[in-house]
Each structure stands twice: as structure tokens, then as C-alpha cells.
Write a structure and sequence with these properties.
By secondary structure, the protein is mostly helical. About 75% of the residues lie in helices and about 0% in strands. The two termini are about 25 Å apart.
Length: about 180
């Protein structure tokens, strides 16, 4: 299968899920659960929590597949964003705080695949990389760090020693520019 046919098959499956097709949900799960689990695990650092969030993700897919719009994002991009957001919500809800390990810890190599590595097979990644390259270096860095490394805005603000509102503003403006670029 090519990346385009994978995308088309997932899009079609999500349309069928919106219509209540359980076999289509199984197909979506089989095709995407490893990638989404990786995203959740990277953010939550707990297999149990990641598995729990993964279940929540597919319950949400079952309920809200009709909200997927393939003209706005590829299916894996939509699902990855859902996973990232759910995992961060769980992190906040449980009151878990990432340990401040100092700046030296941020240079440590993480052997697990990044969320971006799981998505690199698709055409959307090439388009996204092009659009990220159009951003200023600092804005591209905060978007990559927040969305591909799973760092919360608060943790990113601490890392950059920048006010939280400033970081949020950079991300908000960057996401608007990315949307325009990706829609072009």
C-alpha cells in the first residue's frame, strides 16, 4: 500500500465508523493504535496511563468520527492530535508534574521513537515540514517541541525561561500561519 492509499483507507474507515460500523473501528484501531500509544506513552511516561488514554481515544473516535474532515487533515494527523491532547489532559487531571531535571537533562537522547517519526511516512509530514520551515526559527521550535515532543506549554515556558503568555502567543500565531500554509 502507498501512503495515499493508506490515507484513503483510513479516511473511508472513519466515515464508516461515523455510521456505526464496528469493523471499521477495528480497522482504524489496528492501523493506528501503535502510533497513538507511542504518543501517549511519550507524554505520560506510564504504560498503564497510556493504555487507559488510548482506550479513551478510540471511544472518542467511535463517538466523534463524524467530525473528521479529510480536507483539513489526514486521518493520522487528526488521530495524533487527539492522542496528544488526551494525554496532556490526563497529565493535567492527575496532577502529575514533570520533574524539573535541569537543562542538562534536556540534552539526553531518548531512545523511543518520536511522534513525528511515527508520522513521517505520509505526505502531510512533507507539507508540514515545508510550512514549519516558513516560520521563524523560534516559532518553529516551540511548535515542534509542544506538539511532537509532547511538552506542555507551561513546561516549554520554563525551559525557555519565557512568560507563559508569550509562549502561548507564539504557538497560537504559528498555528494560524501553519493553517494558512497547509490550506494553500
Amino acid at each position: 500500500m502507498t501512503a495515499e492509499s493508506d490515507r484513503a483507507a483510513l479516511s473511508a474507515a472513519l466515515r464508516r465508523v461515523a455510521g456505526g460500523d464496528q469493523a471499521a473501528l477495528r480497522f482504524v484501531y489496528d492501523q493506528t493504535s501503535a502510533k497513538l500509544f507511542g504518543i501517549c506513552l511519550r507524554i505520560l511516561k506510564s504504560e498503564i496511563e497510556a493504555e487507559d488514554v488510548l482506550q479513551d481515544i478510540y471511544i472518542t473516535v467511535w463517538r466523534k468520527a463524524g467530525g473528521f474532515d479529510e480536507s483539513r487533515a489526514s486521518p493520522i494527523t487528526w488521530l495524533a492530535a487527539l492522542a496528544r491532547n488526551r494525554a496532556i489532559d490526563r497529565l493535567r487531571a492527575t496532577g502529575a508534574r514533570r520533574r524539573d531535571i535541569g537543562l542538562a537533562g534536556f540534552d539526553a537522547e531518548d531512545p523511543s521513537p518520536s511522534a513525528l517519526a511515527g508520522l513521517e511516512a505520509g505526505e502531510d509530514v512533507r507539507r508540514l515540514q515545508h510550512c514549519l520551515a516558513e516560520l521563524e526559527e523560534r516559532q518553529a521550535y516551540v511548535v515542534r517541541t509542544a506538539f511532537f515532543e509532547g511538552l506542555t506549554y507551561e513546561a516549554l515556558a520554563r525551559r525557555l525561561e519565557t512568560p507563559l503568555g508569550t509562549v502561548k502567543g507564539w504557538i497560537r500565531r504559528s498555528l494560524m500561519r501553519l493553517r494558512v500554509c497547509l490550506e494553500a
